[in-house]
């Protein structure tokens, strides 16, 4: 299926010189459907962002040559409004305040969970109005975001708003486990505080409405759910 709407992936620039962090991060962002570019120095981060081809900058503070704080200050001084999500090993409150004062929009302390960082990325892109893929397809399931329509093997599935949001999250992260806590936070805007039947009931109903394709939603006991991709 081809969307009738123009599709442009959000462009995320990752500025991180530690390959142990940058490589899995770039893979995770690419799986989410973002157009990802990696740079490893502060000057490269500044020049690439000012080039006008970045929707979000994920910025390590400890970059060689020009540190992240100077990159933020230079961007804001030159009038750039690109959202900046800072990665920092500095956990002192004073250091974090300095980063926000320098122009960062949000920060994630190291070490971080990839799922949390991806949620922060989505939040920043939503606030900035960054584009997301219009059409997602996994197997026989197609989700058209502009019309909020879901079809299964060409037939429309009548989903409730919560079922739609739940499927959207699973399709965005197809092939990876989405935690219960993240699903509750993103779909129900509440923290998961232990056993709850709400999520399980919605997953069960969603599986039924997806028919044979519903078997793609795998329960990972004690963790969350995964929408299986094609083999």
| CATH architecture grouping of the largest domain | 3-Layer(aba) Sandwich
The number of E-state strands comes to 12
Q: How confident is the prediction overall: mean pLDDT?
A: 84
In spatial order, strands of the major sheet run 2-1-3-4-5
Portion in helices: 25-40%
Beta-strand fraction estimate: 15-25%
Instruction: Determine the CATH superfamily of the largest domain.
Output: Response regulator
Low-confidence stretches: 1-7
Shape verdict: elongated
CATH class of the largest domain: Alpha Beta
- CATH topology (fold) name of the largest domain: Rossmann fold
What's the gyration radius in Å?
19 Å
SSE order = EHEHEHEHEHEEEEHEHHEE
Could you explain the architecture of this structure?
A hairpin with a 2-residue loop joins strand 8 and strand 9 (155-157). It is elongated, with a radius of gyration of 19 Å. It has helices at 19-31, 42-50, 68-77, 93-101, 114-128, 161-172, 180-187, 197-209, and strands spanning 11-15, 35-39, 56-60, 84-88, 106-109, 135-138, 141-144, 149-152, 155-157, 177-179, 217-220, 224-227. Helix 6 (161-172) packs across helix 8. Residues 1-7 have low confidence and may be disordered. A five-stranded parallel sheet has the order 2-1-3-4-5, sandwiched between helices. The protein has a four-stranded antiparallel sheet with strand order 6-7-8-9, with helices on one face. The chain folds into two domains: 11-128, Rossmann fold; 135-227, Winged helix-like DNA-binding domain superfamily/Winged helix DNA-binding domain (Arc Repressor Mutant, subunit A, Orthogonal Bundle). The protein is of the alpha/beta class. The two termini are 20 Å apart. It contains eight helices and twelve strands.
């Amino acid at each position: 299926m081809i969307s009738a709407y123009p599709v442009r992936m959000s462009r995320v620039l990752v500025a991180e010189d530690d390959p142990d962090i940058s490589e899995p991060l770039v893979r995770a962002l690419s799986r989410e459907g973002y157009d990802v570019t990696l740079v490893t120095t502060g000057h490269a981060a500044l020049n690439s962002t000012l080039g006008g081809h970045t929707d979000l900058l994920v910025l390590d503070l400890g970059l060689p040559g020009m540190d992240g704080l100077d990159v933020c200050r230079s961007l804001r001084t030159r009038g750039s409004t690109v959202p900046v999500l800072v990665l920092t090993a500095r956990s002192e409150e004073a250091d974090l305040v300095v980063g926000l004062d320098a122009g960062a929009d949000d920060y994630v302390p190291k070490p971080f969970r990839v799922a949390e960082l991806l949620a922060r990325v989505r939040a920043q892109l939503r606030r900035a109005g960054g584009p997301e893929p219009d059409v997602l397809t996994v197997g026989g399931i197609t989700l058209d975001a502009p019309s909020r329509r879901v079809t299964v093997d060409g037939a429309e599935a009548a989903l409730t708003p919560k079922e739609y949001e739940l499927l959207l999250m699973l399709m965005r992260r197809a092939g990876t486990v989405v935690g219960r806590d993240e699903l509750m936070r993103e779909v129900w805007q509440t923290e998961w505080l232990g056993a709850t039947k709400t999520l399980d009931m919605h997953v069960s109903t969603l599986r039924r409405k997806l028919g044979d394709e519903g078997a793609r939603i795998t329960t990972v006991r004690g963790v969350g759910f995964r929408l299986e991709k094609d083999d």
